[in-house]
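From the pipeline queue, job 12 of 40. The input is one protein chain; the requested action is below.

Action: predict structure.
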Amino acid sequence: MFNVAVKAYKNVKLPKEEAPVINTGGLLSRDMKPKNKTGKLSPQERVGKYVAELRKARQGLKNG
């Protein structure tokens, strides 16, 4: 049972972190906001996102 959980945890595909978007508009320019992905995520993507958040929080507790 434990080996199955370890295999599943190691095979989770984590979402790649996106670089922050720099606003290059001036005072009188149009607002060209990039559209975020608002569609539904697949279950694998959702689980990967949750695992990435948990890993990041756990690393913060270890280091901080």
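Job complete. The CA atoms of residues 19 and 64 lie 24 Å apart.
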